[in-house]
Amino acid sequence: MTYRSDLLRLLDSRGYIHQLTDAESLDALAAKQIVPGYIGFDPTAPSLHVGSLVQIMMLRRMQQSGHKPIVLMGGGTGKIGDPSFKDEARKLMTAETIAANVASIKTVFEKFLTFGDGPTDAVMVDNADWLDRLEYIPFLREVGQHFSINRMLSFDSVKLRLDREQSLSFLEFNYMILQAYDFRELASRAGCRLQMGGSDQWGNIVNGIELTRRIDGTTVYGLTSPLITTADGGKMGKTMNGAVWLNADALSPYDYWQFWRNTQDGDVGRFLKLFTDLPLDEIARLEALEGSEINAAKKALADAATALAHGAAAAAEAAETARRTFEDGAAGAGLPTLPVPSGAIGIVEALTALGFAASNGEARRKIGEGAVRLDDQRVNDPALTITVGETPVKLSLGKKNHAIITR
Asked: Which of 310, 191, 204, 221 is nearest to 257 (CA)?
């Protein structure tokens, strides 16, 4: 389909559209007026990770194309937890933990969106503002009558748990009703006409569309992005060292830069479209590079993605640290640092403390494989003690993981 609106043309050209309800009607609406649209984020940790970045970028694309992004923080739904495609229930968090996570996560969005009172300025709302005030019986009478248990049981996110004979609590089962209610509430409060999310949210989004139509008679729309996997079929954002967090206090800008620099060749063009603002013609040029030249495209991806999340200065520092580390053989100042006040630490302990190995056993195995180096000299003894004086020591695992050990 050829879209007329800047919004859908932009989303389509950069690979964000997987499913869309009533594309023609939404396209016509977006071509003639500002469309407020939202995505919800549950505060399950103090930072979002790169798995949420597609959704953050979709809100950014909304603003770039002249529409109004709404960031919905799940201060209310976070008290339950989304059961979609999860093997087990999330651990329940206290209200204090949720509030602290919301405050921490807010800082991420300020890097990607312009907030304010203007017609296309982003706004952030918290569904605890209305969900915490609901009265159970009135809610059941008003909203519950519009949900069929038969249909809810047919959703893939629910069937997966039931087919595996894994427990799905009544608490979690309510999540999809509350998310649907969020859409109806935002349509009423903020004139929201569009909900976006990952492909796993399709059923929840459709529920919200139908609930809003049945109760208020308002036409609203849904759009999902494709599941982002790597060229080898792996899950986007998973590394040997764990999640790729967006907050700098959870993952350093250097490690964030390195994550993008290590992108597989087959993913470079797609990731440039999704995760940077580089023009499509420049992306086409970078994507066409072959052989060792593809490294220039990976560096461009790392520079642009890191600049968005952490600022241009942090991206430049990370790139310079990488250049000095890999090209000059020096210990770049921006590498992760492990302070050792005692001046001595075992090599196995250092590898696990830095997250280079998930366990002592894995650390010993890496040493046995010859993958570990101190100041670029191979380490063969897992019983080695690293002694640190006034001069820092560089610890490396393979070609891509480096850190500085200081006293």
From this structure: 310
Give Cβ neighbours of residue 356 (< 8 Å, ≥ 6 apart): 241, 363, 366, 395, 397, 401, 403
Return the structure tokens found at 118.
């203007």
CA neighbor of 56 nearest in space, from 349, 305, 401, 249: 305
Q: Find tokens 């390195």 and name the residue.
A: 258
For residue range 343-402, list pLDDT tens digits in order.
Answer: 889 999 998 888 888 889 988 999 998 899 887 778 888 899 888 776 678 888 887 788
Contact 123, 70 (CB under 8 A): yes
Positive/negative CA dihedral, 33, 34, 36, 39:
positive
Measured CA to CA, the distance from residue 141 to residue 1 in angstroms comes to: 41
* Residue 80's pLDDT band (cuts 50, 70, 90): confident
DSSP string, 193-239: -EEEEEGGGHHHHHHHHHHHHHHH----EEEEEPP-B-TTSPBTTEE
- How many Cβ atoms are within 10 Å of 116's Cβ, its own excluded? 10
Tell me the C-alpha distance between 324 and 322, whole Å: 6
DSSP three-state, residue 351 = helix
- Length of the chain in residues, anyone? 407
Inter-residue contact 133 to 119 (CB < 8 Å) = no
